[in-house]
């Protein structure tokens, strides 16, 4: 991994950890697979921290530009799956 996770300096330490966890799960979905429920729970927490759609697009856009991994496509695929499934973007 030769990139950084986009974060907001005004977030608390707990919020930063939760957002980084979400990015990490998106990464795992591309590199292996991740439990759908775990990803959706992390996304729900991400949306509590980043409720604005435009800020979400901005942060996820930076993440995708840096890593090549799309938060949007990963969450979209997870939403289409059943509880208990694993999300794999490979």
UniProtKB/TrEMBL annotation:
Top-level taxonomic group: Bacteria
InterPro entries: BH2638-like_sf, UPF0223
Gene3D superfamilies linked to this entry: BH2638-like
Pfam families the record matches: UPF0223
Coiled-coil ranges (or none): none
Family under the similarity heading: Belongs to the UPF0223 family.
Record-given protein name: UPF0223 protein GCM10007216_08410
Top-level taxonomy: Bacteria, Bacillati, Bacillota, Bacilli, Bacillales
